[in-house]
Amino acid sequence: MKFESCQKLNLPKIGFGTWKIGGGSFADPSIDSRSLAALHSALELGYTHFDTAEDYAEGHAEELLGQAIREVPIKRDSLFITSKVSPEHLSYDAVLRSCTGSLHRLNLEYIDLYLIHWPKVGMNLVDTFKALNQLVREGKVRHLGVSNFNLKLLKRSQELSETPILTDQIPYSLFERAYAKNAVLEYCMKNDILITAYSPLEQGHLPVNKILQAVAEAHSVPPQQISLAWLVAQPHIITIPASSDPRHQKENIAAADIILTADEMQVLDRLH
To answer: With a threshold of 0.90, does the pTM exceed it?
Structure first.
């Protein structure tokens, strides 16, 4: 596994997303066994960065992730756990309650990285960061970040955060480049902020054209691996693909070891 260094941290280039673990927008206990099997498999394959949120399956994804961590013999300090506060909870008291709830469901003493999941019109960022800063001071959260923030909101977050903003988590893939166009990508790369790319495989619907297929065939790997390899070959980029299939989990984490040539990177850069 390759790592990305940022703000004195070394994070794996490829982590594990937990959207659809335990359900979707709502909890679905009927798939608990399948969800736990997916988490166990990911842990056993060597994934160490797990991304979740209080909004995933109404918090049930956090519960299952916490259960899986307890059931697999692994040291807490070898894991990097990200969770997120929902946009409807962006006030001082609500942020504190949300973090307490996430810690309880995860059964952890601290969260490595805590993000604002989505910006909300009319949100009070001053009060929100007052609470987030307090969580860091109390040791309940190690690092702060944002998700789906444009450049203006990202810069404002930097002003309000007492500790450096570690990441902006955004949709970014071979065929999704909106945040590259709105200058967030370039700004993060120049200011030691990680980009955490979510939906890197278009939630299982990655378009495969002749160019992507040709590069994949040259490396004798599936196109999905090439898509991930292109992402993580870029500086200051990590990504969090999700899969419940152990075979796909293994392919995803192995994508970080694929070496693309400069010509291949240029061809893939032009795909969009």
So the answer is: yes
N residues, the chain = 272
Residues with Cβ < 8 Å from 93, sequence gap 6 or more?
131
Spatial contact of 56 and 62, defined as CB atoms under 8 Å apart: yes
Residues with a known catalytic role: 56
DSSP 135-186: HHHTTSEEEEEEES--HHHHHHHHHH-SS-EEEEEEE-BTTB-HHHHTTHHH
Q: Is residue 252 part of a domain?
A: no
Residues 185 and 270: their CA atoms lie apart, in Å, by: 16
Residue with tokens 């956090």: 62
The answer to whether residue 7 sits within a structural domain is no
Angle at 43 between CA 82 and CA 231, to 5 degrees: 60
d(CA 253, CA 239): 10
Residue 25 falls inside a structural domain = yes
158: domain CATH number is 3.20.20.100
pLDDT digits (tens, 9 = 90+) for 76-115: 999 999 999 999 999 999 999 999 999 999 999 999 999 9
Domain residue limits at 168 = 12-204+237-243
